[in-house]
Amino acid sequence: MSSITKVALVQMKMESEPKKNLNKAITNIKLAKKRGANIVCLPELFLSHYFCQEEKHDNFDLAEKIPGPTTKILSDLAKKIKIIIIVPLFEKKVSGLYHNSCVVIDEQGKILGNYRKMHIPDDPQYYEKFYFTPGDLGFKSFNTKHGTIGTLICWDQWFPEAARLTALKGAEIIFYPTAIGWHPREKQEFGQSQLNAWLTIQRSHAIANGVFVVSVNRVGTEGSHGKLIEFWGNSIVFDPNGNIIAEAKKQKEEIIMCSLDLKKVEKTRQHWPFLRDRRIDQYHGLLKNPSNE
Predict the structure, then answer these.
(1) What whole-number distance in Å separates Cα of residue 89 and Cα of residue 62?
(2) pTM, whole model, 2 decimals?
């Protein structure tokens, strides 16, 4: 097996109709394959507008089972064109229990597994706790023909524990399907600082764990009644040394292609042995909330 893996990041603007978004995703996946991609990743909750901007019970109708109609369509596509697809979905586990999930489909059309988002935010216009139960499958990695990949989702991006545990599961590449952006009224004052923080935390995960980090964001302005989110794009790939090796534009739909040499994971970890020098005997405090002691 070659150590070179070619990944595609699909940076999309979403429509209000799921069918249009699915068709756009299929077109982009086919185009990525024509450009040589082995693995393609879609943005978080790619089938719809980011519905978590409001607490609305009708939005639960957007959820679907896994396996379900979307995974069937994309499994058939993966098998037909021989590509690995990372598919973020609004999952209905059972009635009344929903997850923000990410399915990995291999080039034979087989579902390798499902990751359920572990960290669920609750911020203005990011009311995800209304919709999603925290993940119950733990942190995961998936062995594929083109490397061992881990999947985390958006808000997970800010937690070093999530990246570390995914790396310890064997991930050579961590994919972060994402839906993040600015509140337009705050952009002028805080926008650049927020974007810089987002880029910095991902770079730190790549360095601290000796992995490739691939983050795939949406673009476009969504919302209504004066409450908008301007999704900032900037889909990006970091190598295990924290170098940017591919980057999208802020507000442009595009497919970013990038070749990753997985041998760099082993080489980087040998030279920067952060995993070796961990003091797991002293980390019990991580299981507690801060105290005044």
Answers:
(1) 9
(2) 0.97
